Amino acid sequence: MSALVAALVSHMLTSRREKQQWDRQVSLRDQTWERERQERQEQWNREDEARWHHDRLAAYSSLLGSVERWTTLARRVRPFPLVGRTTLTKGDQDRLEELVNEIYDAETKSELLAPETVMGKVRGLYMLTSFFTIDMSELNGRTPEELETRGNELIDKVTKLRRAVQDEIKKSLKIVIEDVETAEGKGKRTSG
After folding, report:
1. Residue among 91, 164, 152 nearest 121 (CA)
2. pLDDT per residue as tens digits for the range 122-138
3. CA 190 to each of CA 162, 177, 185: distance values in angstroms, whole numbers, following the listed order
4. What CATH number does residue 177 fall under?
5. What whole-number distance in Å separates Cα of residue 142 and Cα of residue 162?
6. What is the H or E stretch that residue 142 is in?
7. Which of 2, 14, 35, 143 has the lowest tally of Cβ within 10 angstroms?
8. Do the domain assignments include residue 100?
């Protein structure tokens, strides 16, 4: 009888050890699968980022280029009473409207690629440039000097907002400009 009890106890202990070993193997396999799943997900995220980076960069470059061309033209044709230019001419207004349309097209292309932090500011750029083109076309009861001041204010707002958009774009593209002078004492600027 003691042999039977010894055999049962031995079998129970062996079964228990096998179950514990099985549970450890299952746990290790699950951990391995989870780690591999996470690594695949991270790889896919990196591939997606790389795939869309070029498209985002192109859309942002187009947008910033359009805004820069608009700003250059707006500064050149803005109302300036000292030289007799009290409102926008029809030709200037048409050229500005073409650039506003370029900004709108670039905004639309960016819409699918850009985070909301960028798009909120981009919409502001479009609205300000559109408003300037309309607002500077007529005196509407204002003196030429008041119109000049208002035009300068709007151009300054566009310029500041463009810088804010550019900063948000750099963040979204993970572009970092650091001053190497503080790190290396060489005074060069690099991007990383």
Report:
1. 164
2. 999 999 999 998 888 88
3. 22, 6, 13
4. 1.20.120.1730
5. 28
6. none
7. 2
8. yes
